[in-house]
Specification:
Layout (H helix, E strand, L loop, with lengths): L1 H51 L6 E3 L2 E5 L1 H6 L7 E2 L4 E2 L4 H32 L2 H16 L2 H22 L11 H25 L3 H9 L4 H12 L1 H17 L2 H7 L17 H6 L10 H32 L7 H29 L1
Helix pairs in contact: 1-12, 3-6, 3-9, 4-6, 5-6, 5-10, 6-9, 6-10, 7-8, 9-12
Length: about 350
């Protein structure tokens, strides 16, 4: 009886010890999570605070005093266009940088997305296992290469190739190779490993019964790969595209090395030099005096970059949900249009009722 009681007591103590240990571990995890979340919040708040200052705080540069022009900031075609005596505002513009950033990333996406999907399909479903393992290892190594190495590779290999193609194929004698297409190729190379890794993981999780059923019904391997495997893995593939696009949007070093740094204007040709939000924020940053307008306005550009990344992620996630949902969930823009239509209909109905009541009286 005493032995049984001691065993019960020992079991209770062990259970209490495990319970306390679980609480401690949960507390540690909660603390780490809060620290990580707080870092994101602090960084975001700091960037927003510093980015708003140029439009509300007066700065003195070269004997002129004033704030930055908000209208020119979004519409200007030159990052630093001096001081406007009529309005009393400094002219710093990022409108053309936003257009250039979107242009170069769209070109990069046109290269990287199909390449990544087809490569992932080959690794996951077509290539022999030994070859697939070698290719997967190579993809993982590409993901670990620093961006400056991509930039050096771009200068030594991609830029001369682009220059040769522009002059010999398109007869553009002024092409130097330092261009938008060179930057797009670098961005594609940098985002492809992320897209491929997530796409391969998603393709490997496709239900084998569905694949066997497709083959049993007479579909070829190619038809099965494209109509069954890719469709079943589309959610993971879109996740890879979103992450790859995010990395491309935030790249600065490699872009600055291969795309040039024109001082103004929207880039209209893929063989012309270009400058993006990230590369402009990086250019001459060391020469900018802290707390000066030239320094703080770069945080304003950072807000624009954050907004572009958020909007892009929302759009891509919305497309992913639309494609992945069984009921074909309407796109966000479609839902917003239907909401506006319903709101306008209610306003119109309310107005008609109000007019009828007035006439009745």
């Amino acid at each position: 009886m005493i032995n049984e009681l001691s065993l019960v007591t020992t079991s209770i103590k062990k259970a209490e010890h495990k319970h306390r240990l679980d609480k401690i571990i949960k507390g540690i995890f909660l603390f780490i999570t809060l620290v990580c979340a707080s870092i994101i919040v602090v960084v975001t708040v700091f960037i927003i605070y510093k980015g708003v200052l140029p439009f509300i705080k007066k700065y003195t540069e070269s004997g002129d005093t004033g704030t930055a022009s908000l209208s020119y900031f979004f519409s200007g075609l030159r990052f630093q266009n001096g001081f406007d005596d009529q309005t009393g505002k400094f002219l710093y513009g990022v409108g053309y940088l936003i257009v250039n950033t979107l242009f170069i990333n769209v070109v990069a996406a046109l290269i990287s997305v199909p390449t990544s999907i087809l490569t992932a399909l080959f690794i996951a479903r077509i290539a022999p296992k030994p070859l697939a393992k070698i290719m997967q290892a190579g993809i993982d190594l590409l993901a670990a290469i620093p961006s400056v190495i991509y930039g050096v590779f771009g200068i030594g290999v991609i830029v001369p190739v682009v220059k040769t193609i522009a002059r010999n194929v398109f007869n553009i004698s002024s092409a130097s190779g330092i261009s938008l297409i060179s930057g797009a190729l670098i961005l594609a190379l940098m985002s492809i490993p992320t897209m491929i890794s997530l796409s391969v993981t998603s393709l490997k999780t496709v239900n084998e019964e569905m694949i066997k059923g497709s083959l049993a019904l007479g579909a070829s391997k190619t038809q099965t790969n494209f109509k069954i495997c890719l469709k079943s893995a589309k959610s993971g593939i879109f996740a890879g595209i979103i992450l790859g696009f995010g990395r491309a949007l935030g790249e600065a070093t490699a872009i600055s090395m291969v795309s040039g740094s024109p001082t103004y204007g929207i880039t209209s040709s893929i063989f012309d030099p270009t400058v993006t939000l990230t590369s402009q924020m990086l250019l001459s940053l060391g020469e900018a005096v802290p707390d000066s307008l030239n320094y703080d306005v770069r945080f304003s550009a950072g807000i624009c970059l954050m907004a572009i990344i958020i909007i892009t992620n929302v759009i891509l996630n919305d497309v992913k949900d639309h494609i992945s949902s069984v009921e074909k969930k309407p796109l966000l823009i479609t839902r917003f249009g239907l909401f506006l239509k319903g709101l306008l209909s209610k306003i119109s109905s309310f107005s008609l009722k109000a007019i009828a009541n007035v006439e009745h009286r």
